[in-house]
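HUMAN:
Sorry, I am quite new to this. Are you able to go through these amino acid letters and fold codes? The numbers rather puzzle me.
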Amino acid sequence: MSDKQSLRRGVSRMQEEARRLQECHAYSCVCLICRYPTSREFNPKQSIHLADIFSVRTVRSVSAEGESMQLLLAGLFACGCVSLVDALPWPAAETYINPLAECSQSSDPGACRTTRDSWKTEYADAIAGKYQGQRNVAFCLSTGCDNAIQPDKILGCAWQIVIAKSGHLERDGTDAANLKHFCGSDYIDQARRQAADAQAKTMSMMIGK
């Protein structure tokens, strides 16, 4: 059996275990995947090409299945099963545009169009480490910004955590309030908050690169 076949076989078994553990929605369960004795031929510390195997982005998903894999990947990072060098690059800004709604259907069409027109610049600023870009991206991912952006509560919270830990001199009380609200238990559950924490750690290491 080739190394690639062995790797894929091992990852397939990891995915099977992930599906069996999904109902507990806790990182303690996800982390068990790293330690599970799948095969003597498979070493989870090996280089895993996530784009080829999972066919999902580490920080982007719109389907229920994609969100489950998003939680799994965040768990793999948190457990140390996958290193940062195996992560996919930042998704293109356009992938966050809401594919299910036209701005004409928004409660505020003008605001929706303005957000979409400026999104590429805001997103580029955010991943470059600029404060205002990060604030705007975090808010739109959490709320959808008048249907302009596909909401992603995990990623929105992750950006709020990045802002909180960034040391930006521009930070003010609204940032603390946003963190409390968009990462709070009334907005996302515990498992998704843990996923956001793990993603924020990875994103902080990627910002500016």
Q: What stands out?
A: Residues 21-63 have pLDDT under 50 and may be disordered.
